[in-house]
Structures are given as structure tokens and as C-alpha cells.
Amino acid sequence: MSNPELLLEDPVDEQESVLISRRTKAIPGLVYHWLMRTARTRRAAWTVVGAVFFGCSGRTALDASTNIGSALFVQGVLASQLIAPGQMCVYTADPTQPMLSSGVLDVAFRDEYTPTLLVGNQPLVAGDASEQPDDAAELQGASIQVTDASGSDIDAFDTVVAGFVYGPSSGVPGYSPLAVTLLDSGAVAAVRDRVTRTAEAHVIAHVTVRGVTRGGAPVQSDDFVFPIDVCEGCLVAFAPGDMDPAFPEPNCLASTASGAGPGGAALPMPCVRGQDAPVDCSNCQDVPVCHGATAADAGP
């Protein structure tokens, strides 16, 4: 059976981890979702879940010999790829792909942050791998809470996702890439006044992914925590070959053609401009911040 892949077709338009024990996947999806949404803090949610479902030994209240399928988890955020114009970004189910420890959103380009997560599906209870069911899951939605660095709430929203992750095989988790919006326009608007050309806003996205197994059972990941820096113009790169020394720097006045490098060769660009990876100023002349200084700035 082939691995799922995620294709991002339009490259132009387009921590510390705080994890609750994966044993909480034994909690029915609605109860767990209610706890995470209504507990005043995630620490409080952990206390409630632990008190109800775990004994002093740390074992779940369920019989460990019971076959109760598989559970979702977020392995990480996949690193942005650089591609040639006209190419597609391809993310696979390979768990060894490069991943990010934090993200960057440049509001000069876009007002949402939508990276690709690698979602895993692992056995919920250890045991004989031959007795574990093939609980492949359809991924349907995600819940996101955005806080500042001190933990104060900024925004919370649910988003629809579309994906499929195979179940574990011989005890090895199944994986699938999944595009998820971690900062929507509301979250970005809430911190926009803190962001200037010289100042960034630091936020933290808490995300859970949910879905339904082929057997119809609801499944949900633990809380995955991912820090993101929000900036303006910080992902624009002005290479020495882009700049005309006769004018103030940085500038892009020496670029002979949009997106062209030395000798006129096309420069690579990120899958999503303004997200995680820098873009050469010659590849974004449709965005004002990519102009840098202009001839008019030189004065008489």
C-alpha cells in the first residue's frame, strides 16, 4: 500500500512541547475535548484527567489486554521546501523528513500561518502486534488555541482538515502529512499592532487533530505545542547581487529580472512565500516590502 503524500501546487499564492500522556487517548473523544476546552489551564486538564483515569501506578483504568485500536499524535511540523518556479512541493509519510522547532510568519506576505504537520497513528495499548486492528483514520478537523509567551489567550478556533493516515503495522506507527492552519487571520490581527519592521510578536499554537477510524471510532491527538514568530519583512532576502551600490541599502535595484539569479537562472522559492523560509527580493517584486530602497530614496 503506497504512502500518503501531500502536494502543495501553488508556491506563489498559496519548544518545548507540553504533551499530555498519550494514555488519554483512552478517553472518549467528546469527554477529552470537553476537558481540554473547559479546564482553566492545560495543567488543570492534566490533573483532572490523571485523577479520573490513572491510578498511582500510572496504568489506565482499561484492561491492558483489551484491544482498543490506535491513537493519533502529531510528530512535528515539516520544514518548508525550496522549489523551482512551476514545481510542486511534495511532502510524504516519511518520519525522517526535516522538521521545524519553531515557525515564522511574515505579515508582509500573508495573514495566516498554514504549515504541514506530520500526523502519526500508533497502537493505543502495547501488546501482540498481530492482534492490533488496522485502525486507519480519516482526519477531519483540528482545534487550535493561540497564546502569547506568558500563556495568555489570544485566539481559539476550529478548522476543517482533509487527510488519511494508515494504521500501525507490526507495531510501527502509520504517518501522513496534513496541512493545518495554526494562525488564522483573527489571531494575526490580534498581534498585528505589536509587529513592525524591527519588532516581532512571539505566539504559541496549541493544536489537536481529530478524526474517525475506519471502524467508526473517534480519535484525537494530544495537545501539540508549536512556537511561532510573527514579523514584517523578516523573510525577504537581499543578496549582494540584488543590490545596486549607488543607492541606499537594502535594495533590489540590480536584479535584471523578477526571480532571476546570476546569469538569468531562475532562483528557488519557498512553497509558501512569507512562511518559514526566506524569499529572494527578486522573487517577490509584487510585494512592496521586497523593493527595499528605491531610486527615489537616493534623493537629488
Could you name the key traits of this structure?
300 residues, elongated, 3 helices, mainly beta
Characterize the structure shown.
The chain is mostly beta strands. It has 2 domains: 69-231, no CATH class; 235-300, no CATH class. It contains 3 helices and 16 strands. The protein has helices at residues 29-38, 42-53, 185-191, and strands spanning 6-8, 70-78, 82-83, 89-91, 99-100, 103-106, 116-123, 137-148, 153-165, 174-179, 201-213, 218-220, 224-231, 236-237, 269-270, 279-280. Strands 6, 8, 9, 11, 12 and 13 form a 6-stranded mixed beta sheet that branches. A 4-stranded antiparallel beta sheet has the order 5-2-7-10, with no helix packed on it. It has a two-stranded antiparallel ribbon with strand order 1-4. A hairpin with a 4-residue loop joins strand 8 (137-148) and strand 9 (153-165). Helix 1 packs across helix 2 (42-53). It is elongated and about 65 Å long.
- Give me the secondary-structure category: mainly beta
- Provide the residue-averaged pLDDT: 77
Helix content percent band: under 10%
Q: Main sheet, how many strands, which sense, barrel?
A: 6 strands, mixed
What is the number of strand segments?
A: 16
C-alpha Rg (nearest Å): 22 Å
Taken from the alpha-carbon principal axes, the silhouette is elongated
Low-confidence stretches: 9-69, 128-132
What gap, in angstroms, lies between the N and C termini? 67 Å
Assembly state of the chains shown: single chain
Domain unit count: 2
Could you state the order of secondary-structure elements as H and E? EHHEEEEEEEEEHEEEEEE
If helices are DSSP runs of H or I spanning 4 or more residues, what is the number of helices? 3
Percent strand: 25-35%
